[in-house]
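Weekly modeling sync, notes
Attendees: S.R. (lead), two postdocs, one rotation student

Agenda item 3: backlog of single-chain predictions. S.R. asked that every request posted to the team notebook include the full sequence so nobody has to chase files. The rotation student volunteered to paste the first one in as an example of the format we agreed on. Action items at the bottom.

Example entry:
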Amino acid sequence: MKRRGKEEESPRTPAWMVTFSDMVTLILVFFILLFSMSQIDKGKFESIVDSFQGASIIPDGSTSDLDVVLKDVKAYLKEHDMEDAIKAERTDRGVVLVLQEQALFETGDAEVLDSAFPFLDMVAGLLEELPNKVDVEGHTDNRPISTYRYPSNWELSTARASSVIRYLVNENGLDPERFIAIGYGDTMPVEPNDSDAHMQKNRRVEIIVTDPAYKEN
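Predicted structure, as returned to the notebook:
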């Protein structure tokens, strides 16, 4: 009878197994915590990625990029003592570079002077970093011209604008589709044509690095 009582006694869980179960539970909790923390890190990572995507590091020709162009051009002009012959300013249209005739051409001619190459190369280097369209406008004073090559100021002003673009494209590899050549002749003077000094200011080429936000009325 005593032997039979022992056989009916229910089996008891070993103590080591209880300890082992507790340890497994703790390890499971530990990995759950690690997983939760990894989710937080993932969220932070996604936030960082979003911030990089929102802040483009590639120049897009916007206002800040044009401000850099203006700053660089002004620094170049000051360093090379060219501020009397070339002006740089910011308008609604974009960055406007005003090159007096003597900075680019002989009087009555449209072939770009060798002395203008360094400045145009510097401008080309800045344009290479931007997608902006570029207008190049030629202007003359009101003295008439009548030569075989340039029957009027219309031809001369257009030829000068085209020569500047041709140099930027052929010598610096810029995309020709970005450029527009415009010849205004003597129709848009900045000063009255009543003195040599004023007429000199009217003989100019303007390079406009256009602002994408500008819309002509």
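Discussion: group reviewed the output briefly. The two ends are 114 Å apart (CA to CA).
Action items: rotation student to repeat for the remaining queue; S.R. to check formatting next week.
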